[in-house]
Amino acid sequence: MEYPNEFPQDSRARLDAAQVKAERDFVKAEQTLESSPFPTQYQSAVENLSKHYINSVFFSFANEAIRIAKEGIWSACRIQPELEKFGASLIFSVERSKFCYRNGWAFPKVNALFFRAEVWTGIKSSERWLAFLDDLTTVAEAQADAASSNFQVGASDTFRTAQSVKSSTDDSETVQRKGTTKWEDIEIRFISEERIQIIVAGKTDSPTYNYEEFGLFDRRKETPNSAWITLRYLAEARGTLKQSPSNERWSNTEKHMQELRAHLRKHFGLQDDPLPFVKGIGYQAKFKINCSPSYQT
């Protein structure tokens, strides 16, 4: 496998391991496929297994790209072009090596353009892609803050320095977040449609914020933005959002969840996903979120 310039040796080793694992999983799954008198059924099954293989290796590369950007080796703006080049090369390699029957004969009819379009659509409509975009946003903001603050630090310290600058901009938030190491310690309580109270580790004397103070507002309209409204709906649903609110398109709900996820990570300084999507359930908050009795009055 060819790697981009400045791709560290330890990242190459981890990506090689991910590819070996994906290959093992592909072979084991392919061996379970039953012989069929209809070759197209076998071909379709192999194409689906190939998509799983591509997804596994592709997101391993994405994770490594985020990691080396955090270390200052790559800029955030370089990541997506490198991902697209890597993905295209990976798909082409899979088409050459896996599109064949067990006897070695190549599949007679493969619509390569259709297959590639399906792969990219599957990648970019997945929860893993949304999580990647959240991480990329965090890295880009951190690098921008480091540049604007004129910190002359070593490349490996750039990301950590920027995060330190961001967390010190608001003393009250810093005090509130101090000691918070997991989402389960946090409770967001709506006391009205325009104000929340954030309770950390059960401390009920915590400060309150309106949508502007919390950073979820539309600067042009001076009103709550879509992420705030989504947070409010999530509170009304007590932390689980199974369907789009107010007949909103699900794709818009996903976009608002992505914005909200990035903001919560930034605000609380926690990097794991606060709003994972659980199959069969919907978006489920890791933190507590609800409405106080005063919300309805």
Question: Mind explaining what this structure looks like?
Answer:
The chain is of the alpha+beta class and 297 residues long. It folds into 2 domains: 9-147, no CATH class; 171-296, no CATH class. It has 9 helices and 9 strands. It has helices at 9-31, 39-70, 76-98, 112-124, 127-148, 158-167, 171-177, 226-236, 250-268, and strands at 186-192, 195-200, 208-210, 217-218, 223-224, 240-241, 277-278, 282-284, 288-291. The strands form 3 sheets. The chain has a 4-stranded mixed sheet with strand order 3-2-1-9, with helices on one face. Strand 4 (217-218) and strand 5 (223-224) form a beta hairpin. The radius of gyration is 23 Å and the shape is elongated. The model is unreliable at 150-155 and 164-178 (pLDDT under 50).
Summarize, please.
By secondary structure, the chain is an alpha+beta fold.
Main sheet record: 4 strands, mixed
Number of strands: 9
Question: Uncertain spans, ≥5 residues at pLDDT below 50?
Answer: 150-155, 164-178
What's the domain count? Answer: 2
State the order of secondary-structure elements, H for helix, E for strand.
HHHHHHHEEEEEHEHEEE
Q: Which structural class matches the secondary elements? A: alpha+beta
Question: Hey, roughly how much beta strand do the residues contain?
Answer: 5-15%
Spatial gap, N to C terminus: 62 Å
Give the overall silhouette: elongated
Radius of gyration: 23 Å
Number of helices: 9
| Overall pLDDT score | 80
Helix content: 40-55%
Going across the major beta sheet, what is the strand order?
A: 3-2-1-9
